[in-house]
Amino acid sequence: MALLFASPDDDPVAWSAALRRRLPDLEVRVFPDIGDPAQIDCALVWLPPPGLLARLPNLRAIFSLGAGVDRLLEDPTLPPDVPLCRMVDPSLTASMAEFVLLHVLRYHRDLDVYEAQQRRAEWRLLLPKPPSATVVGLLGLGELGTASARLLRAHGFGVVGWSRTRKAIEGVRSFAGPAELPAFLEGLSVLVCLLPLTPETRGILNAALFARLPEGARLVNLGRGAHLVEEHLEAALDSGRLAHATLDVFAREPLPKEHPFWRHPKITVTPHVAAYCQPESAAELVVENIRRLRSGRPLLHLVDRARGY
Ligand code: NDP
Ligand code: OXD
Description:
alpha/beta, Rossmann fold, 7-stranded parallel beta sheet, 5-stranded parallel beta sheet, 9 helices, 12 strands, 18% strand, elongated, binds oxalic acid
């Protein structure tokens, strides 16, 4: 039996080596060189071509190279009864927390304001505030939200979080469910989205939510592009309701060259790079799940398809 690797963004050579070092008898086939599809029993994928997994008659498990599985679940041909596991990996988590801290520090020290001033050759000081004066709200307190919350706390920032179920993270006020969303948004300096994309969270970054943020708050969207209603963001930036936004994920990726976000003076665009897993680290989870699959034990980080994450 063999594992099929398919990803436009991940390095097949590094991944094959990391997997084989741990499981020397594992045969790794790299898309598009599938060979006999009937010999493939598991797949390790990021953005596989729609329909690919449905062509594997003996598939027993799908391992996502990404933490978010929305694109896999959107494929109507995704085999319905094959277990789907998402990526949870220390290198991915650490890189996300680092990225969150980077942008919170940037906003905390008003770099977005200084960049705008530089374009006007304007020399104007804003008195720095202590980190505790910057309150960061994390939408999503899962693997990535929790690690980000802890790192932000360690730097002295005020941190609050919102999730479906209530959390106990030291120093972090936890809000849960739609009823507590308005209270969570009150008083935030920076709102960071680390939610999975599901029917409940699609379009959550909209005008009604922005209206509940303090005037001049900043937004960092690292979840998925479809969390954001793009026209509502432009209106909020134009009116000053939001001062600036950093967007790493987009409804269409790559972001088309003609998209106005590329040139918007109050938007920073990054190309879906907030977090990335290193094969040497992330292969541990994949190999552990292959061992579990072979011995009939429960798989780790199974996606609840009905819930969407
Ligand atoms: P987790 O599944 O560990 O955490 C998801 C969090 O979102 C949980 O706290 C969950 O609440 C909360 N949540 C889900 N639905 C709702 C809802 N309807 N209302 C309130 N809270 C909700 O995921 P990760 O932290 O590992 O990843 C989060 C997302 O980050 C991914 O799905 C992906 O979209 C994005 N991502 C982006 C990357 C990038 O490079 N830009 C890289 C990696 C991930 P509860 O805990 O109560 O279930
Ligand atoms: C993602 C990832 O889900 O890169 O975006 O892990």
